[in-house]
Structure formats: structure tokens, C-alpha cells
Design goal:
Layout (H helix, E strand, L loop, with lengths): L12 H10 L3 H8 L3 E5 L5 E4 L1 H7 L3 H6 L2 H4 L2 H16 L4 E8 L5 E12 L5 E10 L1 H23 L3 E6 L5 E4 L3 H5 L3 H6 L3 H5 L5 H12 L7 E6 L5 E12 L5 E10 L1 H23 L3 E5 L5 E4 L2 H6 L3 H4 L10 H19 L7 E8 L5 E12 L5 E10 L1 H23 L3 E6 L1 H12 L5 H7 L1 H10 L1 E5 L1 H7 L20 H12 L4 E9 L5 E9 L11 E7 L1 H23 L3 E6 L2 E5 L1 H7 L3 H6 L8 H4 L3 H9 L5 E8 L5 E13 L2 E10 L1 H87 L10 H28 L2 H5 L2 H16 L2 E7 L8 H22 L3 E9 L2 E8 L6 H10 L4 H11 L3 E6 L5 E8 H4 L4
Parallel strand pairs: 26-27
Antiparallel strand pairs: 1-2, 1-5, 3-4, 4-5, 6-7, 6-10, 8-9, 9-10, 11-12, 11-15, 13-14, 14-15, 16-17, 16-20, 18-19, 19-20, 21-22, 21-25, 23-24, 24-25, 27-28, 28-30, 29-30
Helix pairs in contact: 18-19, 27-28, 30-31, 31-33
């Protein structure tokens, strides 16, 4: 607003001087009123006077400052500056100015800018110093905040993908572009500066008109909230951009420039496009899906349904709109719906709106027909989380339920087929086996073939983990079982040692993710017979992750296997006959010679080609042709399968030889043929007469010798019976001797522990208290007493060790397995080598007392031999049940020994170690095998039948 008034008159110099001189205190008032801290100091910079601003800056009066040590008023750096720079400068009559720090009364540090002006007298000597201070603390904080804001703005500008810009509307050029423009468009700020028209170049041609309209609007002072357009990135890709502007005007209000932010919204546009396509797709699915998607109000009245409701019910959505849900279902389904409704009301009363009801209900279509519908219902919530109707999906499941009924019927038919199938069928549950494989993988096992090879006990565990769920009638007949229960549980009763390799392949396949196996394995019937079967197992798709159901079929191929073995034997015999036999062999097929061996050529003197051209009957001696004419006729017709007996043949040289011929039917080239076998008996015929004479003489001698042998046989039979009885008595006496020996060991061990050890303990106690209550004995006497006590301690330990060796108490108290565990642990610790003991399968077997002690003694003797002689660092002992035997395997990595020499030396030295183990094994019905060589370690296998080892009664 403009005000019209006369200009003020300027005061002249004389007036100004008069005003100042008329009031001498005017200058002091001016200094006091100043916002600058002004002070007067003496020549040593000690304060003499300060105005109000100076006092407020320091918080002290001049007098207080003079009384306070300067170290409390100024930091060390300021003091050094004060005395070294400021004082020296003003002392020379020069002005000093600069920034430094002071400490106010409240303890805060203030950065000030100071001016020190020296005042001199006529001689030039400094008389006082006038100082002016300006508090820069607020200014520095503002400066730091401004610098921080500038750094933040630069960081945001450099790091953000958005562009900050200022566009001059009059020149069309950018006054400012943030560095992020290079990430945005691919072009650098410099390229924009060097090419003013670059902005128009990168705008997509389809948007040039749009850009022109924007410029016209901006020049006209019109600004939109947002601008969106497409531009071409330097890479050639088309991007979307969004710009938001503010319009800057000059002092006359004319548009001057725009400042704004540009954002790459390509990803948003693509997402919007995908969202639009997705909405169209889901709208299409909702309108065309066979399922019905619907919403209902809080009273379960239909509000909306997709068009597919007509295909399901015959009603259109408009016809059912507003109809209560209960009127769409049958009476029997209303009760189920009300139960679900009650559960929902209970949940919502607790504030739980997440419940989803899944119901199968009978609906009534437009024609009155009943059909089944599966419906899922969930609660709808508004923006504030309040219940607002229901949403659901319904689908016609009539066909599915009918299919389910058909499946149930099919299952019944399957069960009938399963039970009545002539092939052995098994249903097995391998769930525990699957868990075992998973545990092994977690432990790092990847090569299951190597794992099972190195850990045979793991394979036995796999067999224990196979559960037989069901078998059919053919299986009972195949394995000789009276009922299914005899086969339920595991495979222990049917697997044999020879079939473990095939079983291992099955386990390796399953552990590696395989689902099907086929191969021949040997099984054992419950009667103990071995049969060969073609085993095929298959894991259905739905059980491949759990192995909870596996179907196994067994086809008995024992007859075929035996036939193959017989055929292999027969083929081998034919091959040997044909290639190596001394008899002549001719293969004839439909009267023609197909094969002749070397012996036939040697007998007849003809070549193979000549024999193929000659009729075999022509080689027969004329004197024998008539006698054997019927047989030769059948030979020519191919119907002969017998021996012709002896006859003569004519050789190529004209000689005569006696032969014996037999004919066998064979297959040759896939067709029936006959194999003629000729034996040259010429020499035997010549000897026949001599043999007849010798035979007569032999018969006479045989009759005499037979009478003598009959008498000798009677005597030998009596001796054999006596030896058998003696052997039985020896075995019984040996068993009794071992039993008595063990009983005696037990008695001696008990006496040693209960009597000798206790008495020795009492003596030791008395020795330890021998001098109690007496004057201090002589030192030598005390030492002798202590020596006797030490001997007693060692004796007690030896007695207890002997008692334990005679009869380990763990065997009676804890059983065989724990006793062997203790034995292996103690032996390993005592002799400094690793003993790996493992037992499995004996948990449900109660062993006879004699069997237990003999098994223990056999293992004890083997471990003792390892400790004393083998020089081993590791021993492995396995006690396992492998039907029908109990197996004990003992292996060490020691030096081994020549077994025959060692046994002979032991017999000569009357040592019974190995013989004792062998005898103990034999006494309990078992056997012992030893495999050893010098430098290869030793392997011992004890095999004891379970039936003879089990405790009876």
C-alpha cells in the first residue's frame, strides 16, 4: 500500500554534534543497549568493564571473573590462543579478530567471534583494550543443521530413483537436475546440459502432443496434480513416468519455472496391467467355473451368486436372491446346518471370526430332484473388522459321493480278489522303515549300498522294521502257515541267509526313493523247506511319501527253478558227452545226420561228410540187420526212444566192430531230434568169454567171502553200537563235568567273596587300627605295618578279581547281554584296545542256564586270546538272532596265526583254549568256525540253534 507524505528533513552535522555533546552518557547508554558483548580490558587483557550483553554471555560480573581462575573460564586451547596470539598482537598496537571458545557460568561452551582493538596514548603505549564478542553458538548450530540437511538432500538426490528438477519455462532448459536422472533415463546430467532438446527426444512419439499441451498449460499458469507419460530409456526400453510440479512465478506473477519430482512408475503400470488382466481372468473364472461362489447376509439369505448356480440347481441367481439358505436344502440337512451354525455362534461369541464351515448337504434343484453339495462358509468382515455377511463356495459332489460308494464296492471286490488270488499277496507297512531311512540320511548316510555292506546288523534291523499287515490264502498255502497271525509282525520267519543279498537290494532301492522291485529270492516255509519265489513289490502313488502301504506278490517258481537246474545239468552232460565222451554221438533229425562227434569218426573210420551221406542202417552188419529190423524202422520214423543193445557195424576199412547203441530224444534247432550214442564194446566182447569163466570162479570165492564178511559185520555192528553209547556217555559226562566245573567255580567264587575276602578285609581293618590308642610306635614298625596293609589290599583285590573271573555276578543278575557288555568294556580298558560289542534279536528269547554260561565262556576265551596273543587295536563282537540260529561273530585286526600249527602246538602243550571253545559249542548243539592267516586278523563264528538254546519248561 502506497502512502503519500512529505519527505523528512536530513539533520545537518552541527545538529548531530550538539546532540551528542549535550549528553555525555549517551554513548554509554548506546553501548549498554547494544546486543553485542562489549568490554574494556587493561593492557594485560584483564576485564575492567562490560555491558549487559557481555555479562549475560559470561553469566558473571566483572568482579566475579577477576576472582575466578582463568582455567575455569576458558578451555586450554583458548587460553593458549589468548596469551600467545591475542595478547602479543594487541601489545604491538594491532587489532586481533578471530573465533574461540569460552565457558559460561552454566558450564556450557560458547563459540564466539571476537574483535580486540588496542587504545594507545600519545606515546603509542597501550593503555586499554576494547573487545567486542559475538555469540556464534546459534549460528554454528544453524550452519551445522543446514550442512546436515544439505548432505541429506544430496544423499537422497544421489540415491533415490526419483528425479529432482527445476525447469525454466522461458528457455525450456533445466536449471537443475539431480544425478539420479542417469538411473532414471540412462542419460547423464551433462548430456541434458549439452543437448537442450534431449527431453523432447526421449519422450515417446505418441506423447509429444501431450507434452506440448502441458507446456501451454504451464505457460498459462495452469498446473495439474500429476502428469503421466511414456518415455524411451537410453537402452531402448519404454518406461512410464509420473511428475508432480509446483509453479514458480516472477514478481509480476508471470510463470517463471516449475520445480518438481519425476518418478519411474513402469513397475506400477505393469502391476496395474497384471492386476487388470488378473481381475478379468478371475472374473471370467468366477462367471464360468462349475463351482458356485456366493455371498449371503447375516440372516443367511442369498445376496449374490455366480451364473454357474443355474447349472448346479436349475435356478438363476435372481430367482434365489433373498431366499433363506434353509429353504434350499432338505430337512435332514437342516439339522447338520444348524449344528454348524451353533459352532460358529460359539466361536464368534469368543471373538473368533476365522472359523470356516465345510458341510456336505442335500439340496433340492428346480425340478425337485435331490443332489449333494459340498459348501464352505466363511465370515465376511467390513473395513473396521465387524461381521458383515458370509461368503462361500459350493460344488456339486453327487458324482463324487457316488464314486466313493463305487470305490467302497471296488474295495470289497479287491478284498475278495486279494483273498482268493492264486498268487501269494502281501500287504506290508514300511512306515517304521521310512523313519529309519530318514534318520540315516540326517546322520549323513548317502551311499546305502556301502552302509549296509559295512553294517550288516542294520540290514537285520530293517527286516525287523517290516510289518506284515495282511496276507491272502495263497500265502498261507505257499509258506505252510495255519493262520495269518503266524506271518504277521515281521519277515524274520521267512527270510534265509541266502536271500539277504536280494533283501539288501530291496532296501537300497527303497532308501534311494525307488518304488518298484522284481527279482527272485529264496524263502523259508514255516516247515523249514526252502522255496524259490519271484518277488514283486510296488508302492502306490498315494503312499510313496510314507511307505505305509506296500503290495508284495510272490510267485512260486520252485518247480521252474528245479527244472532249470536239471536242464542246466542235462545240457552240461550233453555237452560233455558230445565233446569229451569216448562214445560216438550222432544227432539225427528226420533221417538226416545233423551232428557227429570225433569219437564216432574214430569208431567208424568215416569222415563227417561221409557219415552225413550214408544211411546208418547200411553200416550195420548184414547178420544183425534182420534181428534189429523193427528198431531200425522206428529209428527211421523218429519214434524210437530205447536201447538197441549190441550189434556189429562195418568200418570204412571193411573191419567189424561190436557197438552198443542207445537213442535219446532231444531238441535240435528248436525241433525234435534223436541222439544216437554208440559205445565201442569190441574189446569187451573179446573178453566176454574169459569173463564168464572168471565169473564162475569169482562166484565160488564170493560165496566163501560172503560168509566171512557176515560174521565180521555182526562183530562191527556190535562195536559201533558200543562206541555210540560210549560217545553219548562221554558227551553227557563232559556236559556234567562242565556243569560241575561251573558250579564249583560259583561255589569257590562265593566262598572267596563271602569268606576269604571278608576275613582279609577284617585283617586289613585290624592292621589299619593296630596302633590306635597306643603310644606312637617305632617308625620301622609303623612302616612294616603299612607294608602288610598294602599287601592285604592287593590280596583282597586279587581275590575279588579271581572270584569275578570264576563266576561273573552280572551273568546271574543282569543276563548274558549285559555280562558280555561288561566283559568287553573291562577287557578293552584293561588291555588298551577298542572292543565294539553289539547285540540284537535276543530280547524275547529266554536262554537255558547252561547255554548262557557256555556262550559267555566262549566269548570270554576268545577275548582273552585277543588280549594275550593277537596284538589287536580293535575287536568287533556281534551277538544276533538269525533264524533258526543264534550267531556270535568275533573279529579282530590283530596278527592272526597259522591255525593247524597252533592247534597242534596247543595239543602238545596240553592247552585247551580253542579246543575248549569248540567243545563248549558242540555240547550246546552248535558249531565253531575259525578263519585266520598270519597278518590278517582272526574271525570266529559260533552258530547255536535257537531251539537247543532256548530254556524249556
Amino acid at each position: 500500500m502506497k502512502i503519500d507524505r512529505d519527505p523528512l528533513e536530513r539533520p545537518d552535522a552541527e545538529t548531530r554534534k550538539r546532540l551528542i555533546e549535550s549528553d555525555p552518557a549517551l554513548f554509554r547508554k548506546l553501548v549498554e543497549a547494544s546486543g553485542m558483548a562489549i568490554s574494556i580490558h587493561d593492557e594485560n587483557l584483564r576485564p575492567i568493564w562490560g555491558n549487559r550483553a557481555w555479562t549475560e554471555l559470561w553469566g558473571y560480573s566483572v568482579g566475579e571473573i577477576l576472582d575466578i581462575p582463568q582455567e575455569m573460564l576458558m578451555p586450554e586451547e583458548t587460553l593458549e590462543l589468548y596469551w600467545n596470539n591475542v595478547l602479543s598482537t594487541v601489545s604491538q598496537g594491532e587489532r586481533w579478530q578471530g573465533e574461540y571458545v569460552i565457558r559460561a557460568r552454566d558450564g556450557r561452551l560458547h563459540t564466539v567471534k571476537g574483535w580486540f582493538d588496542p587504545i594507545t596514548d600519545e606515546s603509542g603505549k597501550v593503555t586499554c583494550v576494547i573487545a567486542i564478542k559475538q555469540d556464534l553458538s546459534d549460528l554454528i548450530r544453524v550452519r551445522e543443521a543446514l550442512g546436515s540437511a544439505e548432505k541429506s538432500l544430496n544423499f537422497i538426490s544421489d540415491c533415490t530413483s526419483d528425479i529432482f528438477f527445476r525447469l525454466n519455462l522461458r528457455t525450456g532448459l533445466y536449471d537443475y537436475l539431480s544425478p539420479s536422472v542417469e538411473r532414471f533415463s540412462g542419460y547423464s546430467v551433462r548430456e541434458y546440459q549439452e543437448c537442450p532438446m534431449l527431453i523432447r527426444k526421449i519422450i515417446h512419439p505418441d506423447w509429444h502432443d501431450y507434452l506440448d499441451r502441458i507446456m501451454e498449460e504451464l505457460l498459462a499458469g495452469q498446473v495439474r496434480e500429476e502428469y503421466e507419460f511414456q518415455f524411451i530409456h537410453k537402452s531402448g526400453r519404454v518406461h512410464w513416468a509420473s511428475q508432480r510440479h509446483i509453479l514458480l512465478r516472477d514478481k509480476n506473477g508471470a510463470p517463471l519455472a516449475v520445480e518438481g519430482i519425476a518418478t519411474d512408475i513402469t513397475a506400477r503400470k505393469q502391476a496395474e496391467e497384471r492386476l487388470r488382466a488378473s481381475e478379468e481372468k478371475f472374473r471370467f473364472l468366477a462367471e464360468n467355473t462349475a463351482d458356485v461362489i456366493w455371498t449371503m447376509d447375516d440372516e443367511y439369505r442369498l445376496v449374490y451368486a455366480t451364473p454357474s448356480i443355474k447349472d448346479v440347481s436349475g435356478f438363476t441367481a435372481e430367482e434365489l436372491q433373498g431366499r433363506p439358505f434353509k429353504k434350499m436344502i432338505t430337512r435332514s440337512s437342516i439339522a447338520k446346518f444348524e449344528e454348524a451354525l451353533a459352532r460358529r455362534q460359539e466361536a464368534e461369541a469368543r471373538g473368533d471370526y476365522t472359523l470356516i464351515n465345510t458341510l456336505e448337504l442335500e439340496h433340492i434343484d428346480k425340478s425337485g430332484k435331490i443332489f449333494w453339495v459340498e459348501t464352505m462358509i466363511k465370515r465376511l468382515l467390513d473395513d473396521k473388522g465387524r461381521p458383515h455377511g458370509f461368503q462361500g463356495v459350493s460344488r456339486d459332489v453327487t458324482l463324487r459321493l457316488e464314486a466313493g460308494a463305487a470305490i467302497a464296492a471296488s474295495e470289497a471286490r479287491f478284498r475278495t480278489l486279494f483273498e482268493d488270488s492264486p498268487i501269494s499277496l502281501w500287504e506290508e507297512d514300511l512306515t517304521k522303515l521310512k523313519f529309519y531311512f530318514d534318520d540315516l540320511r540326517e546322520q549323513g548316510v548317502t551311499d546305502f549300498r556301502a552302509f549296509f555292506r559295512d553294517n550288516p546288523e542294520a540290514l537285520l534291523r530293517c527286516a525287523d522294521l517290516v510289518t506284515v499287515v495282511d496276507v491272502n490264502k495263497a500265502t498261507l498255502a505257499l509258506l505252510g502257515a495255519a493262520s495269518k497271525e503266524e506271518l504277521f509282525g515281521n519277515l524274520d520267519n521267512v527270510l534265509t541267509e541266502s536271500s539277504m543279498s536280494a533283501f539288501a537290494e530291496e532296501m537300497i532301492l527303497l532308501a534311494s526313493g525307488g518304488r518298484e522291485y522284481c527279482g527272485e529270492i529264496a524263502n523259508r516255509t514255516l516247515d523249514g523247506d526252502t522255496i524259490w519265489v519271484m518277488a514283486h513289490f510296488f508302492v502306490p502313488d498315494e503312499y510313496k511319501d510314507t511307505l505305509s502301504r506296500v503290495i508284495v506278490s510272490l510267485l512260486d517258481v520252485t518247480p521252474r527253478r528245479r527244472a532249470e537246474e536239471a536242464l542246466m545239468d542235462s545240457e552240461e552232460r550233453y555237452r560233455v558227452l558230445a565233446e569229451n565222451s569216448q562214445e560216438g554221438v550222432i544227432v539225427m533229425q528226420h533221417g538226416a545226420v545233423r551232428y557227429v562227434n570225433e569219437s564216432m569218426l574214430r569208431i567208424t573210420g568215416y569222415s563227417a561228410g561221409e557219415l552225413e551221406a550214408i544211411d546208418f542202417v547200411d553200416m550195420v552188419h548184414p547178420g544183425d540187420q534182420h534181428e534189429h529190423a523193427p528198431q531200425f524202422a522206428r529209428l527211421a520214423s523218429g519214434g524210437m526212444n530205447e536201447s538197441l543193445g549190441s550189434f556189429r557195424v562195418l568200418t570204412r576199412s571193411g573191419g567189424t566192430k561190436w557197438v552198443n547203441m542207445s537213442v535219446k530224444p532231444i531238441m535240435w534247432g528248436g525241433r525234435e531230434a534223436q541222439m544216437l550214442i554208440l559205445t565201442n564194446i569190441t574189446r569187451y566182447k573179446a573178453l566176454e568169454s574169459e569173463l564168464l569163466i572168471a565169473h564162475a570162479q569169482m562166484e565160488n570165492r564170493v560165496r566163501k567171502r560172503t560168509a566171512e564178511l557176515s560174521k565180521a559185520n555182526v562183530r562191527l555192528k556190535a562195536v559201533a553200537e558200543e562206541r555210540g553209547k560210549a560217545q553219548e556217555r562221554i558227551q553227557a559226562l563232559t556236559q556234567q563235568l562242565i556243569r560241575v566245573q561251573e558250579d564249583e567255580r560259583q561255589r569257590i567264587a562265593r566262598d572267596l567273596h563271602d569268606n576269604v575276602a571278608q576275613d582279609l578285609s577284617s585283617i586289613m581293618l585290624k592292621m589299619e587300627t593296630l596302633f590306635d590308642g597306643l603310644p606312637a610306635p617305632d617308625l620301622e614298625l609303623a612302616e612294616r605295618g603299612e607294608a602288610v596293609a598294602d599287601i592285604l589290599r592287593r590280596t583282597i583285590a586279587s581275590v575279588r578279581e579271581i572270584a569275578y573271573g570264576l563266576r561273573p555276578p552280572a551273568l546271574d543278575q543282569l543276563g548274558l547281554v549285559q555280562a558280555l557288555t561288561n566283559l568287553c568294556h573291562d577287557s578293552g580298558n584293561r588291555y588298551g584296545f577298542d572292543v565294539d560289542f553289539f547285540s540284537t534279536g535276543l530280547e524275547n528269547i529266554t536262554l537255558d542256564f547252561d547255554v548262557e554260561i557256555n556262550l559267555y565262556r566262549m566269548v570270554q576265551e576268545a577275548v582273552r586270546n585277543i588280549c594275550r596273543h593277537a596284538g589287536a587295536t580293535k575287536a568287533v563282537i556281534r551277538l544276533v538272532k538269525s533264524h533258526p540260529d543264534i550267531l556270535i561273530r568275533i573279529e579282530d585286526n590283530g596278527s592272526g596265526f597259522p591255525m593247524e600249527e597252533s592247534l597242534a602246538r596247543a595239543d602238545a602243550e596240553k592247552r585247551m583254549g580253542l579246543r575248549s571253545m569248540e567243545e563248549r559249542a558242540r555240547l550246546i548243539g552248535g558249531s565253531m568256525e575259525i578263519q585266520t592267516l598270519t597278518g590278517t586278523g582272526t574271525r570266529i563264528l559260533f552258530k547255536v540253534p535257537i531251539e537247543s538254546a532256548r530254556r524249556h519248561g
